[in-house]
């Protein structure tokens, strides 16, 4: 990994200058971010030969109902606190400034325009890869970006069936979901072993998901 970095990314700045980074895009609602997300991002950073991984916090996933979605600013703040001290991990609120729902081809187009000399690699789950042909402008994404896929528990993906610019993430599966965490909090059960310490403290401080 390189030592270059883009300054002041945490809150997106449309006129930010780029510095030629190899950037991994890890998008999600992160409602909340958990230890599985962090482990995946670390593996992504290492295995894809990236300079940085950007957690792109989404205000609205077009494939999901967001009835239980926490306020945008709270989710963004949780992710910022969780990765603040992890080398190579950054946070972007770029999708807060784009049309909703958040389509990844729009996000990638915008990032490429703002950071024209950076290269972007997309990280998605096996469930999203299975539904990739239903993504808006999927062909555009596939033609212009490398994609790394992480299979979820119970998913089997044959590497031989993948396009040349799509690869599997080789990492231990961590069976944690944000849904599980929200349910445990609502039931008064501890989640300290499932989320980063900063996230656990933030949830407790703000009384979230109760």
Automatic annotation (TrEMBL):
<dbReference type="GO" id="GO:0004515">
    <property type="term" value="F:nicotinate-nucleotide adenylyltransferase activity"/>
</dbReference>
<keyword id="KW-0067">ATP-binding</keyword>
<dbReference type="GO" id="GO:0009435">
    <property type="term" value="P:NAD+ biosynthetic process"/>
</dbReference>
<dbReference type="GO" id="GO:0005524">
    <property type="term" value="F:ATP binding"/>
</dbReference>
<protein>
    <recommendedName>
        <fullName>Probable nicotinate-nucleotide adenylyltransferase</fullName>
        <ecNumber>2.7.7.18</ecNumber>
    </recommendedName>
</protein>
<keyword id="KW-0548">Nucleotidyltransferase</keyword>
<keyword id="KW-0808">Transferase</keyword>
<keyword id="KW-0662">Pyridine nucleotide biosynthesis</keyword>
<dbReference type="InterPro" id="IPR014729">
    <property type="entry name" value="Rossmann-like_a/b/a_fold"/>
</dbReference>
<comment type="pathway">
    <text>Cofactor biosynthesis; NAD(+) biosynthesis; deamido-NAD(+) from nicotinate D-ribonucleotide: step 1/1.</text>
</comment>
<dbReference type="InterPro" id="IPR004821">
    <property type="entry name" value="Cyt_trans-like"/>
</dbReference>
<comment type="similarity">
    <text>Belongs to the NadD family.</text>
</comment>
<keyword id="KW-0547">Nucleotide-binding</keyword>
<comment type="function">
    <text>Catalyzes the reversible adenylation of nicotinate mononucleotide (NaMN) to nicotinic acid adenine dinucleotide (NaAD).</text>
</comment>
<dbReference type="Pfam" id="PF01467">
    <property type="entry name" value="CTP_transf_like"/>
</dbReference>
<dbReference type="InterPro" id="IPR005248">
    <property type="entry name" value="NadD/NMNAT"/>
</dbReference>
<keyword id="KW-0520">NAD</keyword>
<feature type="domain" description="Cytidyltransferase-like">
    <location>
        <begin position="25"/>
        <end position="184"/>
    </location>
</feature>
């Amino acid at each position: 990994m390189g030592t270059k970095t883009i300054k002041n990314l945490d809150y997106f700045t449309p006129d930010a200058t780029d510095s030629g980074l190899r950037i991994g895009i890890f998008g999600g609602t992160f409602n909340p971010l958990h230890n599985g997300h962090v482990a995946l991002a670390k593996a992504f950073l290492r295995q894809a030969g990236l300079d940085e991984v950007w957690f792109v916090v989404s205000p609205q996933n077009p494939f999901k109902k967001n009835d239980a979605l926490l306020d945008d600013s709270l989710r963004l703040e949780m992710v910022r606190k969780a990765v603040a001290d992890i080398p190579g991990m950054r946070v972007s609120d770029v999708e807060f400034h784009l049309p909703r729902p958040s389509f990844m081809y729009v996000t990638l187009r915008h990032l490429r325009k703002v950071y024209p000399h950076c290269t972007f690699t997309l990280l998605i789950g096996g469930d999203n890869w299975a539904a990739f042909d239903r993504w808006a402008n999927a062909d555009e994404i596939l033609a212009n970006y490398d994609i790394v896929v992480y299979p979820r528990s119970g998913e089997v993906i044959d590497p031989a069936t993948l396009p040349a610019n799509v690869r599997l993430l080789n990492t231990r599966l961590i069976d944690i979901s944000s849904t599980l965490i929200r349910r445990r909090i609502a039931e008064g059960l501890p989640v300290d072993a499932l989320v980063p310490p900063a996230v656990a403290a933030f949830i407790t401080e703000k009384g979230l998901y109760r």
